Amino acid sequence: MLTVRELLGDLDDAAVLAGDAALDAPVRWVHISELPDPTPWLSGGELLLTTGLQLTDAETQRAYIHRLADHGLAGVGFGVGFTHDAVPEALAEAARERGFPLLEIPYELPFIAITEQAFTRLVNEEYALLRRSIAAQERLQRVVLAERGLDGIVGALAGLVGGVALVLDTRGTPLACRSFRRPLDEEAIAAIGAEAHRRARNGDAQPFAPDHADLHGRALVLPVSSEHGRAPQAWVAGVKDSGGLAEVDRLTLHQGATVVALELLRRRVADSTERRLAGDVLAGLQSGELQGAELARRLEPFRLGAEVSVIVVEPPLDGPLGDALDAEALPALVAADERRAVAVVPGLPDDELVEVAERVRARVAAAANGKPVAAGVGRAVPAGEARRALHEARCALEARTLAAANGSRNGNGNGNGNGNGNGKGAAVTGVGTWKDLGSFQLLLSLQDHEALALYCDSLLGPIEAGEGQYGGELMRSLEAFIECNGQWERAAQRLYCHRHTLRYRIRRIEELTGRDLGSARDRIEFWLALRGKEIASR
Length: 538
Hints:
Blueprint: H1 4-9, E1 15-18, E2 29-32, E3 46-50, H2 58-70, E4 75-79, H3 89-98, E5 102-105, H4 111-145, H5 149-161, E6 163-168, E7 174-179, H6 186-201, E8 219-224, E9 234-240, H7 247-287, H8 292-299, E10 307-314, H9 318-327, E11 333-336, E12 341-346, H10 350-366, E13 374-382, H11 386-412, E14 430-432, H12 440-445, H13 449-466, H14 471-483, H15 488-495, H16 499-513, H17 520-536
Helix pairs in contact: 2-3, 4-5, 4-7, 5-7, 9-10, 11-17, 13-14, 13-17, 14-15, 14-16, 14-17, 15-16
């Protein structure tokens, strides 16, 4: 950045008559004019050269200096030996009053020599700035192409700026923060975040310098534009370790904001693609369409090896479940349906699997806004047999839910004694494991699928055969009623029907099977048959 003082260093014959304290003002350009008011053609920051051709009286001379100072010029160089043999005293007096740099340019020093010297310095500075800017851009590009994520980007920005770089979301929460030499204190980060949040909430997408006193002159916060072009989707902040931000630092931060926007877009596209692929694999896994070597192959892109375990979570909070597994540094396939979220993870030893599931469930519960969260686990199996682990995890969770519901009915009177109560029962939390399966483990370990299918048909066959096509509605109603623990309102909502319609269907099931769904034993038998039918279809 060229200053008046630096330019004077190259001009030995020029003398400073006023404004010594302001000689470090930056010189944006050098302009020559003999107009008494050149300000309409100036934008501020220029060093003006004049011979004072029209400055013939003291009043005009004083007004001239005040006019230039008010317009923000860097200074004025007055050429003597033409209209004036010396700098007029009124001009010098006004410059001293304003602290405005006034230079006396001798006759022997032509203006063209000053402009050439200034232009050479300015062009060299711009070229150096351009080279540093290109180098910074190339470094950021390498970080993006290497897929080092936000941490890699802010780490590069911190080194380029020579300070602290951070990316904040629209609520002002840091998404990534890296320092060059010394970290920024928590109070300053909180102040930047609070101001960014306030501006985003007000729809303000303009760059700003933080109000925090310790950051004055050495910090800049830039918006990361969103695809909709309104409120920013994030903020990029840079804080210099010492001194003020130079022009190259500001350019680098602007480039950083563009790179962060690209990284966030890449994240969204990758997340969307991964969710779609995960949903397809999960659907194939649940239906049995994917199994054996094909299933193992489809699990490989999710960094899952020869053996896998399964964790299921209710309610279906797949986002928090994915974040919780990230915190465990576990690769996973995570997807959700309308009832639960499922994660297929690398095969883990039994004890470690339960410990991991407990921590994951706790993290998901912390993000669930007070909703009870329960989980179930399925032990490690070969990747091609992942459906077996999924069944075990689901059955463990459902067995825990069913046991809690029956305990609630029998222990606290929330039911009405016949299974038709509307009480909500106890909230189910914790992790269900193979230890909770009890006699259900026998069902899961049964290898004779024909015998299993025979058992299921003996209970469910009358429903399907007795009502023809309508039997499918009865089967769905039976499953919803059991999984909602006999709660009519919840089951009816799940089926999108009126509770009286559901009551009719349940009565019809009882008529067809001769069973009583108010009996815990019969409900368990139906539940076993439904799960067994699902397993037998593998």
